[in-house]
Amino acid sequence: MRPKYLLIVLVGTLLGCESVLAQESAGYESSRIYDGDRPIHLNLWYPTDQKESPVNYGISAGSAATGAKPVGDGLPVVLLSHGSMGAASNYSWIAESLARHRYVVLGVSHFGESPVFGAQSVNPATVARFRDRTHDFNVALDWLLTKSRLAGAVDASRISAIGHSSGGATVLMLAGARFSASQISEYCASGAAKVDKGCWYGMPSADAAARQLPEAAPRPIRAVVALDPAVGPGFVEDSVRNLKSALLVVGSVENDFLPYEAHAGRIAKAKPDAEVVRLDRGEGHFVYIDTCAANINVMGTSLCTDRAGVDRVAVHARLNADIEAFLSKQMDNSAAQGTPAR
Predict the structure, then answer these.
(1) Are 96 and 62 in contact (CB under 8 A)?
(2) How many CB atoms neighbour CB 269 within 10 A?
(3) pLDDT tens for residues 130-145?
(4) What's CA 315's distance to the chain center, in Å?
(5) Please, are residues 139 and 77 in contact by the beta-carbon 8 Å criterion?
(6) Does residue 166 fall inside a structural domain?
């Protein structure tokens, strides 16, 4: 082969690799659906080839192409569950990143908990209503797979779920982990729970708990990412151990809200084959929220201000890499490694 021709081939090959390795942009839209009279607020992130622009998510800001046309097919789905009294849009740091790696991310915000429905609708007593949370997700997932404009672009056999705090508990329940209200009530009544702010929300009565039995997802959840999950003592250990879903548990060891050993640590210990990321450099419970500047305190813990020396942007960058590697492996999403989706 002549040297000049060889050079042309090499340049062409490199240019071709560059086009394969290039990531899409993140598309974004929000909408509201109804389950009877109950509203369900949805945030949807997805891959697009259109240019991103700044997005205002409320307490935070991000970058996405709002209302853009989706690209790709056979795309895996990630369910995104927010923490107590929050909103799915509080986690744009991971949702946007996953969309750029060819995932469709479906965030669900719950009526009674989330301020997206208006401050007058917020009722702290709804925090323990895990049936409402899991049912909202099942309704939302059915909408995505059958009625949304992305219905023909997603792969219903490749579903995963990510959740923070109560959202971490929610995605474990969707995957089939069993929750015991009596277990969590017994824990919260013990001396071990004195510094556990999760117990400060109050536990449901036995009758209320019976009416609020969580629903598992009707389709298999391949992989679960639990970010500092709440109500750890309420999970039946054997049901966590026997989860068919692959599990990644991320927990803040020096926790300022939920003691690590009782929550993230307990879930990780219950499933020996779980992958575990321990944040042990002062990261608190709310480091998993978008970078923000709002003056919001939750039971004396700042939502947006971290301990000295904690760089929330750097934490998110590390976790994005960990989560994307985990999901790419478990969801067989070769696109996340820079090759086209199958």
Answers:
(1) yes
(2) 16
(3) 999 999 999 999 999 9
(4) 15
(5) no
(6) yes
> Token pair of 299, please?
């039971």
- What b/e sequence results for 46-71 when a residue is b if at least 16 CB atoms lie within 10 Å of its CB, and e otherwise? bbbebebeebebebbebebbeebebb
* 1-25: pLDDT as tens digits: 444 433 333 333 333 433 333 468 9
What's the domain range around 42?
Answer: 24-335
pTM recorded for the entire structure: 0.90
How far apart, in whole angstroms, are the C-alpha atoms of residue 154 and residue 198?
Answer: 36
How many domains are there within the chain? Answer: 1
pLDDT in tens, 298-308: 999 999 999 99
DSSP string covering 145-189, please? HHTSTTTTTEEEEEEEEEEETHHHHHHHHHHT--B-HHHHHHHHT
Cα distances (angstroms) measured from residue 10 to each of 2, 14, 253, 307, 337: 12, 6, 49, 50, 22
- Does residue 80 belong to any structural domain of this protein? yes
What is the rounded end-to-end Cα distance, in angstroms, of the chain? 34
Q: Could you tell me the two tokens for 175?
A: 């995957």
* φ, ψ of residue 324 in degrees (nearest 5): -65, -40
Relative to beta strand 223-227, strand 25-35 is unpaired
Distances (CA, A) of 63 to 110, 233, 290: 24, 37, 12
CATH of the domain at 53: 3.40.50.1820
Q: Is residue 156 part of a domain?
A: yes
Which sign, positive or negative, has the C-alpha torsion 219, 223, 229, 231?
positive
Instruction: Using alpha carbons, select from 100, 93, 86, 83 the residue that is nearest to residue 62.
Output: 93
| Strand, coil or helix: 294 | coil
* Alpha helical stretches, state H, the chain: 3-21, 92-100, 130-146, 166-175, 181-188, 206-211, 237-241, 264-270, 312-331
Give the pLDDT confidence score for residue 124 in this predicted structure.
85
On whether residue 94 sits in a domain, the answer given is: yes
